[in-house]
Amino acid sequence: GELCMVNVLQWLQDCILKSTAKAPDANNEDRKSAEGQESEDPAKSVFSRYLIQSHHIYGKDKRRNILDWATELSLTGFCLPGKPGCICVEGQKQACEKFWSSVRRLNWKKISLRHHEDFFVASTEELGSLRCFAKFEELNLDPHTCHGGRENIMDKGKMYEYLVAHNCQHIFSFFFSVEGQGSLRETSQ
């Protein structure tokens, strides 16, 4: 029951995402006509940031696929393995959509697109200026264990500090529905 509903909801989410991407924007069409750029793909002029959260990310194959796909699609961001698993990718809208489509087709206990941001850009230079991350990397933020050492629970304070260092702390609340704070271990010393 629950697993089936998750798949149905993800399918609906994808259909809505595709239909909104295909819906013509009157202002965008007028601007393109004025500039004489009808042949350019509108998705290439959109910078996106996708925030994906999983119940957990442990498997080596999944982690390798995530890194490989992000690199192949020229996306930047991070993958934070553990529980919960968090992925942030940023780049051209088409590439982010393809990445999300590939990732969600893997076998997950639970995965969701928590939030996405779209920015219209006029040039590739502007695309680069919107990036918060220089590359895509897997983070290791000293996870701690519980339940007899079976689960690697991430240090949310260290994740928040990482996001602050990359000037994108606003995305923390999309992952955890709370405002972020620095690591308690480091701030109490």
From TrEMBL:
CDD domains in the record: RWDD2_C (cd24163)
Domain Small nuclear ribonucleoprotein Prp3 C-terminal: 52-116
Pfam families, alphabetized: Prp3_C
Leader peptide range in chain numbering: none
InterPro entries, A to Z: Phi-like, Prp3_C, RWDD2A-B_C
Name this protein carries in UniProt: RWD domain-containing protein 2B
